[in-house]
Design a protein that fits this description.
6 helices, mainly alpha, about 180 residues, single chain, Bromodomain-like, elongated, 2 strands, about 0% strand
Length: about 180
């Protein structure tokens, strides 16, 4: 007598288990989040400050590393490789939550932030044109919130999203380690 999962290949459990699930979820969340950040920047013209740009690094790491870890899990890679990928994702997103917390504190005036600002680099031309061109440059400060929803800025949402990704990666790590 055969079980249904043995007789029908579609009912077999997927290879990779929790490592695959966790890495795919993190990759999807990171990709949607960075796409949202680009939407705010390119479509809504809410330009990022230097801290905002630094917070994107964790997403730029999580997307390809999550995809590689998912591929490795699906391909039946050894457990230490999967654990390493999930651990790096968890640590990077946890550190990013810390950076987002710092940025949120700067926005709320809890502590001082960096003194550098961003703005488009333009050719200022001759001295007579200088003042008119300076009026068109938008300087983005880390301590000024450009957008809030339900009381949270984008830095605040970054904290929540980064903590979620860290928790998912940690869950995948623990479950994979127990297998």
């Amino acid at each position: 007598m055969t079980t249904q999962s043995a007789a029908i290949p579609a009912f077999k459990p997927a290879a990779g288990g929790p490592a695959l699930t966790a890495s795919l979820l993190v990759t999807l969340i990171a990709a949607v989040t960075i796409a949202g950040a680009w939407f705010f920047q390119l479509v809504l013209e809410i330009l990022p400050c230097p801290l905002c740009l630094e917070q994107r690094y964790a997403y730029y790491l999580a997307i390809p590393l999550g995809a590689l870890t998912a591929f490795a899990a699906r391909s039946g890679a050894r457990r230490p490789l999967l654990l390493a990928g999930l651990a790096i994702i968890a640590l990077a997103t946890l550190a990013n939550a810390g950076l987002g917390t710092y940025h949120s504190g700067v926005e709320w005036g809890v502590w001082k932030g960096p003194t550098d600002c961003t703005g488009p680099v333009v050719n200022l031309g001759n001295a007579g044109d200088l003042f008119s061109k300076l009026d068109t440059v938008k300087v983005v400060r880390c301590d000024e919130v450009q957008w809030r929803f339900l009381g949270l800025s984008l830095a605040g949402y970054n904290v929540l999203i980064s903590l979620l990704m860290a928790a998912i990666a940690a869950w995948g790590f623990v479950r994979t380690a127990k297998r």
